[in-house]
């Protein structure tokens, strides 16, 4: 777990330090020396007297007490070395860059476990193994290049892949993105991305700490910790963007029900990010574009002014903003007319504000002043200004630079002339700004940021349900699918209304009981998993004679154990469900039933517990939402009740976390009422 | 229209040439001089004796006979200057870079028209006005920087925006993309993007001409010309990618029917690109990524091997390929085992082929050899190789460079270390290769290229229809919506089956006629445009009494003129429609009816005439296609007949191009049969 010795060590020992800077142990020392580490630095290398100018110890036993040890020696020597450091040298922080551990097989995994247990025994922190290291304000503990200058206003980067961290830094630095702390967690034997976020959250200092956090994740081993500390950091003012790679790899879990088949682990990850307020990214480019946006002032509304001297870029940017739900509103009125008088004839101020190829730096300044002070329907500006290669644009970029500092509305610079204006762009970046070389990439990232909601507030109040009754069912249930009676009890205890139904395996009893139901009814086979595939559902039954015939036919279906009869309800088919990814809270799903899930996969997901507001958003983000509202003469459904049922389902799985899978499909909804018609629950223990 | 004097002039006159290279006329001359133009060059500038070392004429009358004139003088002087050149100097090609023409107002438009008519009178070619100029193999006629070296294997660039052309060249050159001919058409007063493509097509020389064409379009003034010559060029082996900016701007056409409301001009543009085989792009970055893919060998299948020494990039690339419909198939078997013996322990060959951070150049060579020669389930390779900054990767990139030349399967290089390996990447690019700095951007572009179909073959055979009968209806119809009888005649003549129906405004007549129909029936009001909004559709009518009551109620609806009765059919609701964008052939639409178009906007579009294969693709690309096939116990529809109806609709509008809008909504389909239930046709003249 992260500690002060890792972040701000008074002494660092590099085990395996080398004079050869093409070796990790050599380049690590070089970077730490070049980074001007202020504490004591020890090298251990049995073959050298001095390494890169500092005294080399021939074995680890010889070095003085040391806060942080960085190991760049073969895996097999690491467990013993760590033991000596931990027990004899009071070392509390370890970075192991060596590979050959858990990722390499069983022996490596054992070494890893040994090391973790040693480190834990002294309450220490272990980063890695199999990582590129750590950069903090105090030292440059990575063996790779580039080593970005520490900028407290830059981005913290926490990465599950060392090479990817390097590639993110390289691509970022070329855009003008700067970095603060960098953590490469490697195999994350003891400390994962979540643990570092936890530390950052619990020790957050709004005066000093970097506000932007970029994450690269391949696995999320502790999703609830990620959720908790990401939300908390964002509520404190931080901004987090993350890549979760591996989104399309199929999970290994067998999908035996609808829910299993339609849900994917990517859906759960997105639900978590959504709840936490993390911006979901799919590439290094997206991550860095979002980071660039984070670097500017916060976008507080959706109305963007596009200021340009080149029409094409403005059109493409307007297209992209509009696709992403942002707006490029028309600008008109006396102020717009006044602005026009400062521009050359032929300029347009309607938005995009196009001040022509001949537009000047002064004009740009005036336009920005008008957008900042006069145009109330503008929340932010995107300024596209390149160079056709005829003249210097430094004066333009100087104006832009000043405006970036003094304006309250965010301004996003698109400087596309990466060749013609290379020098001027470099000088602009050196002032601490970031460039968006492609206007559409900017537009997309802007929408991603704008469309990511604030983190869900922690105080989520769920509807009251009968927990005792639920525990009664769950505690006595065996693993697998619950039977109809158990399922009904759960629904009743959770306060989810359900249709009256009779289940009988004797035709005589069923016919006798029919008097309690109104025709038409629907009859379903009990037993087979996919009833409609087996033609085990019969609609529109209007007489006892038909009930009798249908009963006989249904009982002949393979695995039929009984027949169920229900009143046939008219209304809109709805669906709610639950899935469970290991480590995550339950994912609650909702949708329209029937073809909407079976054909169109139109499903919303949220991570339990679901707030009322989240449940509303889930419902409203369905592609078929208009049907819930009622479209084109069709009756809609009671939306508040649907939202409530989603929350009740969430309350149910909070009370019964053993539920691994659940479908209520369909529910039938009208304007008045929604009732569950069929449900299936699976429990594990 | 493009001519030889434009492409390969023996002499060029620059009117408005200047010693000041910050002025367009100055920089134009500088670029032409620096580009080593081999013919005679004349400058016209009344204030100078010599301009940039060449003799300057004081007026245009004084210059010798000249093939090509480039005008960089104020707009108002251009018409007279062009007249003198055309009539006295035998000039047949003109490039006008000056602004202040059609884009600036009425006076400018007049000047533009005068110039066009002068140029046309001598059968000449006019590029511009308001453009950056032209680059061909023979001269560098642009006033902007950068001026890319002419590379016959590079990309032709034809742009409707000069600044965007500059920004595309700049961003492209930074990636290693090279350029051949560049045309900036400006206002396209005489020569547009389509005309240049026409010339390229009609004069295509497969031995010499560039194969890659990049287009930036803001308007498509002659869509059919664009379609014809793009398809033709692509069939000759060319590859075309294009941006059509302005995709979200709402067209000005009033949308008075369903079809109008759901279709957009972007849909029509996409249909055209799809039919032509043009790769649709939305940004400069996408255009250049696709151009980069075009630069490599053609992807002949969907199976990609990802070869990497860095896991993270491989995971993100695999995600993106999979989202785009491409595959990263497992590699296994004896050859895979053999390959593994050449790699370091811990490497994986299962695909991604991960040969670890320590992987060598030799190993990369062996892996590529295996993918090229041994693994038959691999169609292409993506090689991700960066540098953590420890050692030189030039030997790796040398191996890659050689393999790029000799392998038959395409290899796409992702070299992400834009800082650490800057020098090695530059040297790789100098060999004529292109780098993909971001793996996900590559993955997306690869899918875009792979998912763009071949151009539709020109010989489209449409079903035989009764053209005489159709012309009879159309020729006598007045502008606006056709009445029910006319509409039925058109459907019958086009061979589109329709439901039997009665239309009456007298209740007595309707009741009398009811004997010819079977109950249940559906009754609809005739008159109002949106029947279901007005509650003008009543289902499930089972008796004459109900017919009588319903008739009275429907006739009370606003604008009701009559009532229609039809047998109520059971089956899947389908939809076909037609829209017409100015200049384009008709766009034919198809979809599932009801909520699929009203709520989900699930519509496919194709440009008439629609081939059988295209119609099939349209149907199969619907999100709800599974319902047409029959899903989960529901009966599907006769897909062949649906395809035929789409083609019949296409044949109808080919015979009656005056149709500006048409819906058949719904059609009711079963496995056996599809019939039109309601239709609406609007004609213009």
Automatic annotation (TrEMBL), chains A, B:
Query: PANTHER family from the entry?
Result: COA BINDING DOMAIN CONTAINING PROTEIN, PEPTIDYL-LYSINE N-ACETYLTRANSFERASE PATZ
* Gene Ontology terms, MF aspect: ATP binding; ligase activity; metal ion binding
State the source organism's domain of life: Bacteria
**Annotated PROSITE patterns:** ATP_GRASP (PS50975)
Q: Which UniProt keyword terms apply here? A: ATP-binding, Ligase, Nucleotide-binding
Record-annotated ATP-grasp domain positions: 488-685
Task: Identify this protein by name.
Answer: CoA ligase
InterPro entries xrefs: ATP-grasp, ATP_grasp_subdomain_1, CoA-bd, NAD(P)-bd_dom_sf, Succ_CoA_lig_flav_dom, Succinyl-CoA_synth-like
Q: Does the keyword Cell wall biogenesis/degradation apply?
A: no
Pfam families hit by this protein: ATP-grasp_5 (PF13549), CoA_binding_2 (PF13380), Succ_CoA_lig (PF13607)
């Amino acid at each position: 777990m992260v500690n002060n010795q890792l972040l701000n060590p008074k002494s660092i020992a590099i085990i395996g330090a080398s004079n050869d800077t093409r070796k990790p142990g050599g380049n690590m020392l070089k970077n730490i020396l070049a980074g001007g580490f202020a504490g004591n630095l020890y090298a251990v290398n049995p073959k050298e007297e001095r390494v890169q100018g500092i005294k080399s110890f021939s074995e680890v036993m010889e070095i003085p007490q040391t806060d942080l040890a960085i190991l760049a020696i073969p895996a097999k020597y690491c467990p013993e070395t760590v033991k000596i450091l931990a027990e004899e040298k009071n070392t509390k922080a370890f970075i192991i860059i060596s590979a050959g551990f858990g990722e390499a097989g069983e022996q490596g995994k054992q070494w890893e476990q040994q090391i973790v247990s040693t480190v834990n025994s002294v309450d220490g922190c272990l980063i890695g193994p199999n990582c590129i290291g750590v950069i903090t304000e105090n030292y440059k503990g990575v063996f790779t290049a580039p080593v970005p200058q520490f900028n407290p206003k830059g981005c913290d980067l926490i990465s599950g892949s060392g090479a990817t961290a390097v590639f993110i830094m390289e691509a970022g630095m070329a855009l003008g993105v700067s970095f603060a702390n960098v953590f490469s967690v490697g195999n994350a034997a003891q400390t994962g991305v979540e643990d570092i976020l936890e530390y950052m959250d619990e020790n957050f200092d709004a005066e000093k700490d970097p506000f932007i956090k970029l994450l690269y994740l391949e696995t999320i081993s502790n999703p609830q910790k990620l959720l908790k500390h990401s939300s908390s950091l964002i509520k404190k003012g931080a901004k987090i963007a993350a890549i979760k790679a591996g989104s399309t790899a199929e999970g290994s879990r067998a999908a035996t029900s609808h829910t299993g088949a339609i849900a994917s682990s990517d859906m759960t990850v997105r639900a978590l990010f959504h709840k936490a307020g993390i911006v979901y990214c799919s590439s290094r480019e997206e991550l860095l574009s979002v980071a660039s946006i984070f670097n500017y002032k916060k976008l507080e509304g959706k109305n963007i002014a596009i200021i340009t001297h080149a029409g094409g870029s403005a059109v493409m940017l307007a297209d992209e903003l509009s696709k992403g739900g942002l707006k490029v509103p028309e600008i008109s009125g006396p102020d717009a007319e006044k602005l026009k008088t400062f521009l050359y004839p032929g300029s347009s101020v309607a938005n995009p504000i196009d001040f022509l190829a001949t537009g000047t730096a002064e004009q740009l300044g005036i336009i920005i002043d008008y957008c900042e002070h006069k145009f109330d329907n503008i929340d932010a500006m995107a300024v596209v200004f390149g160079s056709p290669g005829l003249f210097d644009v430094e004066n333009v970029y100087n104006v832009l630079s000043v405006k970036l500092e003094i304006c309250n509305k965010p301004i996003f610079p698109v400087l596309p002339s990466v060749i013609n204006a290379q020098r001027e762009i470099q000088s602009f970046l050196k002032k601490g700004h970031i460039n968006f070389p492609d206007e559409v990439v900017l537009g997309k990232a802007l929408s991603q940021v704008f469309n990511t909601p604030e983190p869900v507030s922690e105080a989520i109040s769920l509807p009251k349900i009968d927990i005792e009754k639920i525990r009664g069912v769950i505690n006595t249930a065996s693993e697998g699918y619950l039977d109809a009676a158990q399922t009904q009890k759960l629904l009743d205890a959770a306060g989810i209304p359900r249709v009256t139904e009779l289940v009988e395996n004797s035709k005589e009893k069923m016919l006798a009981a029919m008097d309690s139901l109104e025709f038409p009814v629907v009859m379903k086979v009990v037993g087979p998993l996919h009833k409609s595939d087996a033609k085990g559902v019969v609609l529109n039954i209007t007489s006892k004679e038909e009930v009798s015939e249908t009963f006989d036919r249904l009982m002949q279906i393979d695995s039929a154990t009984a027949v169920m009869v229900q009143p046939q309800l008219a209304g809109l088919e709805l669906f709610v469900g639950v899935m469970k990814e290991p480590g995550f809270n339950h994912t609650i799903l909702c949708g329209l039933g029937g073809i909407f899930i079976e054909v169109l996969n139109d499903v919303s997901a949220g991570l339990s517990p679901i707030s009322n507001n989240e449940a509303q958003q889930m419902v409203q983000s369905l592609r078929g939402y208009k049907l819930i509202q009622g479209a084109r003469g069709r009756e809609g459904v009671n939306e508040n009740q649907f939202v409530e049922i989603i929350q009740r389902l969430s309350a149910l799985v909070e009370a019964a976390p053993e539920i691994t899978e659940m479908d209520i499909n369909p529910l039938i909804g009208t304007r008045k009422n929604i009732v569950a018609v069929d449900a299936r629950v699976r429990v594990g223990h």
